[in-house]
Amino acid sequence: MYEIGALRALDEAIDGLEVNDLDVYVGVSAGAFVAANLVNQLSSAQMCRAIVKHEPGEHPFVPETFFTPAFLEWTRRGLSVPRLALEAIWDFARNPRDLTLMESFTRLGHALPVGIFDNEPIRHYLRNIYTMKGRSDDFRELGHRLYIVAAELESGRSVVFGKPGRDHVPISRAVQASSALPGLYSPVEIDGHLYVDGVLNRTVHASVALDAGAKLLFCINPIVPVDVSNDNAAGQYAEGELLRRGLPSVLDQTFRTLIHSRLEVGMKRYDSLYEDSDVILLEPDRDDYEIFFSNIFSFSERSAVCAHAYASTRSDLLNRYDLLAPILARHGLKLRRDILEDRSRELWRGVGLDSSDAAKLARRGGRRESSHETLERLDSVLDRLQAALVREG
Q1: Which percentage of the chain shows pLDDT scores above 90?
Q2: Contacts for 223 with CB less than 8 Å, ≥ 6 apart
Q3: With contact defined as beta carbons under 8 Å apart, do 192 and 155 qualify?
Q4: Model pLDDT, residue 163
């Protein structure tokens, strides 16, 4: 949601920039989803509307696409518990001096699901979009170069789908692999290998585009650690706020800090390795608490996050106008100060929606289901689970 809002701000503010007609696109994790949409001619306005609008042709983002529980994975792991428990007891009986009973039972960790959610609906969603007329789910049929980066689980190496030798993989499958964040989604098997989220190795993989000859590169990175210790946080967040919010916030901050530190190192290297190229990085400030503390599982917050990213990116571009305008001018582009200073501009009106309608649609997207709708959806999920178990034999 952040990337789409930031992209829309870029699209509006830079004359000569056609975000659907660039030479090369590189997508990592959620960025793989956005980049693959762009190269398939989904405009920034269409993606914004899809966040809140549930109408034919808008490809709406609905919770079921991204947050369907991985029932099959849970079932497989659950069925292994009795066997693992017996093996643990047998190990302890054979080696009572070497192992405590609790140590023997650590093998029950094998029964923990490797993913909470099922990412197959994501692949189906994208495949349906990319097989429409004028679009393609095949890297080789695209009008522009698209590279999707994932990490091979068993070697830890980065793999770039879309390059020769790996361009036969469907784009929808590559995006599914690149966004398979461990713990949330199961690894994705492609050609006998397992792949997970590409951000585990690097955040933006800018070198993929720079090696392909890019002279001007826009990098959109939403993964920034928050700083609740500075003066801006006073009165909003008490000392120990991250600890008070529990394990998810602590893990989130740890993950963001590790990833962002590598990004900073990489950006410094790009300056020396690609001296004739310009790299423009767009990311939230470390005191952007609205982005950090937003609930990623709440689809009712999606429009607010997108609109906030749009506004904050516009502010960032204006604050850096004197630095960015000459860089863009070297590449035949013009940064529009008048557009950035126009405070009447608002995301939803700019994409053809009334702001009040967008608010109502967002609330509708986050509304509670009726009991009838819940039962219907549960029946559908159980039918899919039963079919999958039958296939598994």
Answers
A1: 46
A2: 199, 203, 255, 256, 259, 260, 263, 283
A3: no
A4: 95
CA atoms within 13 A on the CB side of 223: 24
The residues pairing with 115 across neighbouring beta strands, listed in sequence order, are 183
φ, ψ of residue 3 to 5 degrees: the values are -60, -40
Supply angle C-alpha 311, 313, 319, rounded to 5. Answer: 105
Contacts of 170 (CB under 8 A, 6+ apart): 127, 137, 138
Cα separation values, 228 from 221, 305, 343, Å: 20, 19, 28
Q: Where would I find the beta strands (DSSP E) of the chain?
A: 14-15, 24-28, 115-117, 145-152, 158-161, 183-185, 188-190, 193-197, 216-220, 278-282, 334-335
Grouping H, G, I as helix, E, B as strand and the rest as coil, residue 26 is strand
**Residue 242's pLDDT band (boundaries 50, 70, 90)?**
confident
Give the separation between CA 109 and CA 346, rounded to whole angstroms.
49
Q: 88, 108 in Cβ contact below 8 A?
A: yes
Taking only the tens place, the pLDDT of each residue in 175-214 is 999 999 888 899 999 999 999 998 877 666 889 999 999 9
Position 74 scores a pLDDT of 66
Q: Are 254 and 314 in contact (CB under 8 A)?
A: no
Instruction: Return the structure tokens found at 321.
Output: 């106008």
